[in-house]
Amino acid sequence: MTSDDLLARHRAVLPSWMLLYYADPIEVVSGEGRRVTDAQGRTYLDFFGGVLTNMIGYDIPEIREAVQRQLATGIVHTSTLYLIRQQVELAEKIARLSGIPDARVFFTNSGTEANEAALLMATNFRRSHQVLAVRNSYHGRSYATMGITGNRGWSASQLNPLQVAWLHSGERLRGLLSRLPEADRIDAAVEDLREVLATQTSGDVACLLAEPIQGVGGFVHGPDGLFAAWKKVLDEHGILLVSDEVQTGWGRTGEHFWGYQAHGVTPDLLTFAKGIGNGFALAGVVGRAEVMESVPAISFSTFGGNPVSTAAGNAVLDYLLDHDLQANAARTGAILVDGLRAAVGGLDCVAEVRGKGLMLGVEFVRPGTAEPDAALAAGVFEACRAGGLLVGKGGLHGNVLRMGPPLTLTEDEAREGLAILVEAIRSCAAEAVAP
Ligand SMILES: Cc1ncc(COP(=O)(O)O)c(C=O)c1O
């Protein structure tokens, strides 16, 4: 079986709106550490980790063995109608780590479902289906989460069970507030929030649901402290704050365990997914007991928090904490961001090298302008692959290269990936300006 055959079969049987990366798509057949091997036997250093999901890396013995131990019991699934020891243990750990007092945890299979559950709780608690969301966000693929996704390219339906009002993100490069100096953007974002509440809602809004760093949006964010400034206004109205930590959680940003901690505020609800299962389907919401308890009927997830995925989740979390991967993210992320800034930050076509920890972006523009250059980003993306490095793409305009390697990345691997990135960016930038 060649990869080409598989591509033809894929196209014949799977819908075309399922995005496939690369002109010549890759079938990953094995992996170890931070490296994967494709069907042609080519090995790549992986700086995208299945979209920030293979958080610990590939074939990690502690996780494999924990899953094997669970499989050996003969129990893959029981349903949540029965007690699940792995689930209770993981919930205890997540409740403790969440920073939310007296927290409860509900497990789901995906980030979409986690956000959907958070919306269920917030709208019931507040008896309102009005929700605030942020421009350029991504929250999932159900109707409600598409409805609060502020990116037309990722929101496939206008059907929406919620009434949504939109806030400016306060990011540095794009959007109205980017015209203001950094020091003025929090005040402007707060003014925007007050105006939106007064002009587009009836005041009794359920929640604001926001990503501390927008993932699909290209790893952009408002100034640190923005969530706290927003929350002061939200508190005047009893509106809840929900932090979507699907990409920013578990220490990835290096400076904090959760993205919300950069803002000096604790959310009422927090949603998590991706990295916690290291590839096993595991996600959920953790939050204040009174909000979590506001669901007025049985809400049942057949697979949510099943024994295998929560066995993986416990092993992932133990590994993460035992090895202080947050500190590793800070250390190896600094090698990447400093190295990229020094080597390519000054190029005319690079608008910004940004990021925290192991969540890094490079935004490309037409030289000397702020006009997004998606073609250049795509060229660099392919050149990285040719050089043996997998990265991601993103941003509202598709002009951002995104890096979210496993948090176990070594310093040598960071330097190896950096060299490939720099070479790819320099060579594509030179081609772009050549006559
Ligand atoms: C911030 C954020 N929220 C929610 C989701 C949806 O998660 P899932 O694809 O697991 O449903 C994603 C997925 O990329 C995400 O990045």
From TrEMBL:
Its EC number is 2.6.1.44. It comes from the Bacteria. Pfam families: Aminotran_3. Its cofactor is pyridoxal 5'-phosphate. Keywords: Aminotransferase, Pyridoxal phosphate, Transferase. InterPro entries: Aminotrans_3, PyrdxlP-dep_Trfase, PyrdxlP-dep_Trfase_major, PyrdxlP-dep_Trfase_small. GO terms for molecular function: transaminase activity. Gene3D superfamilies: Aspartate Aminotransferase, domain 1, Type I PLP-dependent aspartate aminotransferase-like (Major domain). It is an enzyme of class 2 (transferase). SUPFAM superfamilies: PLP-dependent transferases (SSF53383). The keyword Plastid does not apply. Belongs to the class-III pyridoxal-phosphate-dependent aminotransferase family. Homotetramer. This is alanine--glyoxylate transaminase.
